[in-house]
Amino acid sequence: MNGRIKSYIAELPLLVILCVLVYVCNICAKQTIAYFTPLSLRYDSPLGGEEALAARKYAVGKGDEKRFWPTFWREQTSEFTAGWNTASAPCIVYSGDAFLVWPERYIYGTAPSAEDPAGCALSEALAFRLFGVKDASGRTLEADGELLTVRGVFKGESELALVSRGMRDIKSWYNAVEMYGIQEDDAVTIAVASGIGTPSLVLKGEVLISVANALTAFPLTVVVIFGLAQLIRLLRRLKAPIPDMAVFTALLLFALTLPRLVSSLPGWITPNRLSDLSHWSSLPAKVGSGIRNFIAAAHSKRDAEGIILLLRQAVLCFLTAIIAVFSCCKWTLKINNRKFSETPDISHLGRNTGTG
To answer: Is the entire prediction scored with pTM above 0.90?
Structure first.
C-alpha cells in the first residue's frame, strides 16, 4: 500500500503542471478573444469624418443605434513630443469605443471617452519613454503638432498610442470600422445604406473566436476521451447488465445536452437544420477563408497582435495536449503493469494436475 501511495505522490508534479497549463490556456484564450470583434469592415479608400458622422445619423434616424453604432479607426505612425523627449511610434486614431480597437487592461486612468476630442492613451512603454514614469495620466504631449492630454496608460511592452476623435469630428479619416452584435449580411447592407459604402474586406472575428475556444477545449477533450476509453474497458470486463445501462445513460445525457451545446455555438457555425449537409461540407472553407482574411489584413499592429496571441495560444494548447497524452499513456501503463504484477502465478497448478 505504501508503494502505491508513493507512486501516486510521484505523479502529482505532472498533474499540477497539466492543471496549470490548462489554466494558462484559458487565460490566453480570453486575451485572444478580446482582440477580435465579431465583424470588422476594411476599406481601401479612406472614409472621411463626414461619412462617419452621416453613418451615425443614419443609425439614429432609423432608431438602430443599439444594433448599428460603428467605431471608426485607422493606424499610422506619429511623432510624439513631451518636453525634451520625442518618439516615433504607432498610433491608432479612432472615433467610438476605445476597447474595440485596443482591448488592453488599463493600469492608470482609463481610455478617452467617445466624446473626448483631445484625449489619448499610451502604452506603459511609450509613457515611460516620453515622461520617464509609467503613470502619465493627466500630462500633456504633442502628437504630430497637436496638443493632447493623456487620459490613461494601458499594459503593453511595445510603444503605442490611442488618439480619440469626437463623435462629430469631420476632419479625420478612417479605413476600418468595428461592429458588434450584427450579422455580416446586415452589416454590409447597413454600411451601404448609411453611406460608407461596400467594404473591401470583411473580417469575421467569430471565426477566430471559435478557433480560440476550440484550442482551449482540445487538451481537456484528450483527457475526456482517455477517461471514456478506460471506462469502456472497465465496463466490458463486468459480467452484469451494467454496461448496457451505462451506455444508455451516456446516450441519454448526450441527447439532453446536445441542444444546449448547439445553441452555444456562433450563428455562422450552426445551420438552420442539423441535417443540412451542404452547410457542414462548406464549413471548413468558411473557417479557412476567415483565417486567410485575417492573415491578409495583419499589416496593422492591432491585427498582427491578435494573430500573434492566437498562435501563442495554439502552441500552448498543443503542448498541453501532448503532456496530457503522455500522462494518460504513462498512467495506463502503470495500471496495466500493476495488474500484471498482482496476477497470481497458477502455472504450477497445471503441472500438478498433469502428474496426477
So the answer is: no
